[in-house]
């Protein structure tokens, strides 16, 4: 199944994306709007502080909440979030949750049993693009956004999904990420966009779970199925037990046990300290750019707008992104910036922070091409930190961030990866904090901190710290690079 999903990710990269660059200024719309008004913003880099912030936002809700996520898993962190949501729903807060139906294992983390269990508390759950095996071509169109809005007044957007790996709690793979908390009128615009997704034809309600029913059949009818009546009855009992067990397990997840209470206390203690260290900055202009729930070029909003803003850069561009695999329009955009003498610093994943070997090899080749053309590339090297208290010692750490600083004044934070899927396939969302050198300096400082745990890439594709991958796949990427560049227009 993982290999099948890897194909869904990789195959679209072979197709050239024809994405036009937008012109003009953004007009008022739920997909693209600049709100020039007073806002408060806060960077959320620390994983435990990010979870504490999310739980505090839920706790402050009085009327409504909207949640939109690519991944929502009922693991340790997911349990805390679900239990907090149920508590607010029981107080009368209207809650809507929209999740992508098939992010990784071709099924949602919150399956139909959660739809039924949450509905008992008045919480609505819907799925984006439920996959019908017959319509295999739909599988690639995913909603990659991450959004929480509370009372139309405050919102959270960025790269984090709701799962242990995004809050430093996974024993296997953890992601350093970044969100932005915003309080101000832009939150209402985000709800308007959510409403249009919520009612879109590509969004569906969970299938209603029905308890298995045993239908006693005649001996002749049973024999045609190759089972005796006794075997039919035994099979029914197995199905009924599995049905009841699944519902009981789901309902148990929504009820806080002692271990959940203890974890919540630890998150509050450590996360609260880190959250208090993150300053709240006053800004005066924010742009929200969100793709529509329509597949294809007509539904692209984030890509052309982001390309336009990048094309306007005059001095410097600082990037921290999960991946760097630009091609087509995006490739030409970056080459144009380099031709104009724009300094580009890129922090992304390296071999040791990307567990997928195929993706690591492909990304390394593209990063090396970027170095050849003048980009300063830094590869995160998964240096463990002593305060990673929830993940254990054996976990891998990598970057999942999607942020940029433009000319030291404008800051981009969202779900947009620098790859063909974000450019032309997935639904993405970005927040741009406009004309705030103070916030941009803060963001650039956080990126620089992570660069301290990275190593610079040399022109030959090796790392400045001496690490050099010599696998057959690595050799193949070097030998095939000229052909890949010609055929795939990779940078």
Describe, in plain words, how this protein is organized in 3D.
The protein is of the alpha+beta class and 491 residues long. It has 2 domains: 21-36 and 286-491, Endonuclease, Chain A (2-Layer Sandwich), CATH 3.30.870; 40-283, Endonuclease, Chain A. 38% of the residues lie in helices and 20% in strands. It has helices at residues 2-10, 47-60, 76-90, 112-119, 186-198, 219-224, 229-253, 258-277, 302-311, 328-339, 357-372, 420-424, 437-451, 472-488; strands spanning 32-35, 39-44, 64-69, 94-100, 124-128, 147-150, 154-158, 173-176, 179-183, 203-204, 281-283, 286-290, 316-321, 343-349, 376-380, 396-399, 402-406, 410-414, 429-433, 454-456. A 9-stranded mixed sheet has the order 1-12-19-18-17-13-14-15-20, with helices on both faces. It has a 9-stranded mixed sheet with strand order 10-5-4-3-6-7-9-2-11, with helices on both faces. The longest helix has 25 residues, at 229-253. It is globular and about 75 Å long.
């Amino acid at each position: 199944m993982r290999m099948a999903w890897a194909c869904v990710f990789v195959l679209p990269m072979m197709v050239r994306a024809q994405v036009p660059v937008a012109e003009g200024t953004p007009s008022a719309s739920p997909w693209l709007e600049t709100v020039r008004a007073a806002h408060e913003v806060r960077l959320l880099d620390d994983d435990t502080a990010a979870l504490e912030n999310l739980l505090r936002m839920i706790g402050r809700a009085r009327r409504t909440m909207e949640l939109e996520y690519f991944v929502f898993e009922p693991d340790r962190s997911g349990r805390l979030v679900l239990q907090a949501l149920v508590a607010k729903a029981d107080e009368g807060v209207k809650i809507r949750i929209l999740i992508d139906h098939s992010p990784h294992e071709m099924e949602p983390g919150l399956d139909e049993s959660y739809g039924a269990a949450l509905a008992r508390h008045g919480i609505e759950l819907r799925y984006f693009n439920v996959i019908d095996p017959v319509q295999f071509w739909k599988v690639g169109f995913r909603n990659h956004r991450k959004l929480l809005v509370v009372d139309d007044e405050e919102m959270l957007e960025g790269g984090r999904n709701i799962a242990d790996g995004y809050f430093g709690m996974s024993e296997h793979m953890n992601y350093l990420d970044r969100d932005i908390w915003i309080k101000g009128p832009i939150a209402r615009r985000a709800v308007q966009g959510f409403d249009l997704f919520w009612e879109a034809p590509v969004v569906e309600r969970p299938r209603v779970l029905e308890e298995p029913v045993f239908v006693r059949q005649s001996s002749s009818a049973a024999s045609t199925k190759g089972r005796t009546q006794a075997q039919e009855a035994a099979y029914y009992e197995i199905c009924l037990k599995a049905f009841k067990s699944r519902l009981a397990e789901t309902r148990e997840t929504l009820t806080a046990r002692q271990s959940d209470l203890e974890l919540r206390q630890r998150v509050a203690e450590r996360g609260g300290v880190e959250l208090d260290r993150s300053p709240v900055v006053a800004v005066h202009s924010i742009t929200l750019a969100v793709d529509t729930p329509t597949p294809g070029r007509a539904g692209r909003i984030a890509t052309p707008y982001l390309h336009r803003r990048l094309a306007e850069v005059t001095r410097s561009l600082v990037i921290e992104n999960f991946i760097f695999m630009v091609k087509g329009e995006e490739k030409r955009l970056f080459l144009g910036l380099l031709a104009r003498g724009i300094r580009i610093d890129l922090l992304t994943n390296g071999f040791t922070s990307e567990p997928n070997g195929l993706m690591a090899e492909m990304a390394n080749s593209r990063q090396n091409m970027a170095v050849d053309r003048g980009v300063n590339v830094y590869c995160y090297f998964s240096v463990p930190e002593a305060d990673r208290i929830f993940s254990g010692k054996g976990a891998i750490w990598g970057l999942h961030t999607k942020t940029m600083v433009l000319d030291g004044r404008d800051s981009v934070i969202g779900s947009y990866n620098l790859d063909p899927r974000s450019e032309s396939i997935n639904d993405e969302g970005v927040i741009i904090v406009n004309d705030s050198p103070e916030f941009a300096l803060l963001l650039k400082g956080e990126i620089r901190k992570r660069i301290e745990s990275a190593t610079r890439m040399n022109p030959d594709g090796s790392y400045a710290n001496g690490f050099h991958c010599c696998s057959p796949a690595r050799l193949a990427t070097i030998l095939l690079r000229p052909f890949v560049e010609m055929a795939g227009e990779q940078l």
